[in-house]
Amino acid sequence: MTEAQVREDALHCSGCGVKLQGEDSSKPGYIPTQALEREPIICQRCFRIKNYNEASSVTVEQSEFLRLLGQIAEKKALVVHIVDLFDFQGSVISGLQRFIGNNPVLLAVNKTDLLPKVSNWNKIRNWVQKEAKDMGLKIEDVILCSAKQNSGFDRLLDAVVRHRGNRDVYVVGATNVGKSTLINRLIREYSDLDQELTVSRYPGTTLDMVHIPLDDGGAIIDTPGIVYPSRYSELVSAQDLGIIMPDKSLKPAVYQLNEGQTIFFSGFGRFDFIQGERQSFTCFNSSRIKLHRTKLERADELFADHAGELLAPPSRDNLEKLPEWTRHEFKIAKGQKVDVFISGLGWVKVNNDMGAVIAVHVPKGIKVMLRPSLI
Prior knowledge:
GO terms for molecular function: GTP binding. It comes from Paenibacillus lutimineralis. This is Ribosome biogenesis GTPase YqeH. This protein is α/β, with parallel strands linked by helices. The protein has two domains: 3-226, P-loop containing nucleotide triphosphate hydrolases (Rossmann fold), CATH 3.40.50; 234-372, no CATH class. The chain is 25% helix and 25% strand. The strands form four sheets. A six-stranded mixed β-sheet has the order 4-3-2-5-7-6, sandwiched between helices. Strand 6 (210-213) and strand 7 form a beta hairpin.
């Protein structure tokens, strides 16, 4: 059967019930053409769970994800919301509480390995709790963890046991936050996969969600990752994604700037110090992003002449695929201790309390904001 026939016949996965498709492995229902000869017919995600005790990430558009979320309010659920500490404001699901009703939420904050080892973890946990509250989330507990270092997951599993009761566990999160790693750990700890995953669709299975049976008759529900276009990580090419997303502990870069100076983040964006006394700013970005300081009066010309070359990556070809840059200006009051946050690209900490006027230039649509300093 051809890929076109998969679409035409509207086959559905025997495991999770999702409509099968052969075009995009990152979307729900993907099945390689050769797998159509197997019985029963199951999507690649169910196949990986069944045969390897392992879930893989799939994504859906925001409107579809919110439709799926809305069904949780009618369930008896414990929601595990996974967020990325490097991109906290960019990866939190906006308005989550509206969709899940009164069901309890555990906030699993991944990628703690990116922060300096000397970080004050109590302070960071308190910061997360306050930011989550300000964003309208009602959190039962915050668990700091690192999928890469496999740390914090025992605490998360303990929290799941404490708060679950007889509820099913729904795992939700944006793309690239480490959701699959957590799902895989939950499967290994709690799921009895000696039984066939695909004997029948599980009662209440919703399209695009995978129900993974637990020993006690409950289930882990793996939801697709939500795509937020306001995150830089959703706009760049696969090649550049590996550059902007850090894979090891951040090495903060401190710059003493006079007003009228600019810092370029390779060719991904720029930070302008427009007005204020000489002061220091600390950049927290992937080590593969090259920082370039210049005069503000030369910044436009420098970008026009050297984007994709001196200011690279991205290459000129990849840069042309991104939206036009837009400018965000902020006035920072005296005594205000803030980060200038750029979703998916990192942040700049304003170290002094003497006040400043700054601006950030990034592709249109990227979330840029002031927030209380994380570190």
